[in-house]
Structures are given as C-alpha cells and as structure tokens.
Amino acid sequence: MIYTKEQLKHLQSILLLMLIEFDRVCRENDLKYYLCGGTLLGAVRHKGFIPWDDDVDVLMPRDDYEKLLALKSGIFNDDMFIESNENDSYYGHVFAKLMLPGTLNSENFTENVKCKKNIYIDIFPLDYTTSNKFKTALQNKMCLLYSRLMLLNCNYKYEKKGIKKKYILVGIF
Fold this sequence. Notes:
5-stranded mixed beta sheet
C-alpha cells in the first residue's frame, strides 16, 4: 500500500503502541520473542522504524508461540486479539497476527478474502530444524508448499508466476 509521509508516521505510531502492548503480555506470561526482518533492522539502524516500513514482525520459539495462542481472550488492552488459522477458517497464513479492531489495513492480496483486515503485527513461530542441508531444504520446500496451499484455500490473491504458478496447479489438483 502507498502511504503519505503523515499516514506512514501515524501507522508506525500505532504499530509501536501495539508492540509495547505485545511486550507487556509476553513479559507477564514469561514468553520469549525476538524482533526480526525490517523491524529488527529499523530498531538497530534507525533506532525505530525503517522510514518506509509499514509493519512489525516478531519471532517466537514454537513453545512460547503455542502458549501465546492458548492465552485467554481479553488479555490484551484495547480489545487487541490474536488471529490465526486456528480461530478463523478464513485466515490463510501459517503464522498468527496481533490485530487491532476498529482499524483497517487492507492489502491488495486480501481483497477477495473474508479474513479480518485490521492493523496487525506478524507473529512467526520459530521452529528448530536439522543441520543437514538436504533435510533443511526439503523442510523449507514443504513449508512453502503448505503455506501457499493454505493461502489458495482461503482465496488469497498473489502473483501467479514461476514456481508460485506450479504451487497453484498442485493446489487445484
């Protein structure tokens, strides 16, 4: 999505408040998490957000991720809630999101999807893998296939080129 400078700053301020709330819940429940991707880069290099970044990404060890998903509803302030494929059949991702109700963040690939379209923080589970390069590559391919099939099942729209087109054909089959 394309934002004006003012809109992006406003979005980043909302995301920061959401991250502070996420941190509070994680501390109170002894859950570990790590900033990742552009969020980590922004925190280190820019002491905040990368100037053009419009999201927050965190990683959680699988055990802590599962504990987070099992927390009772209403634990977050401002009616924030965890959205995942476990609690919404229209949600097609293999990771969870912390959502802020009363907001809108519609992306072009979700236009045909019935999932919630709030401002969110991505929460990725961190799984352990083997040091065997072949097994790691196989696991990566299987995870990619599984995630694409879930998106396809929920009518998410994404580019259909190259390998993605093959995944779609396999999914249709």
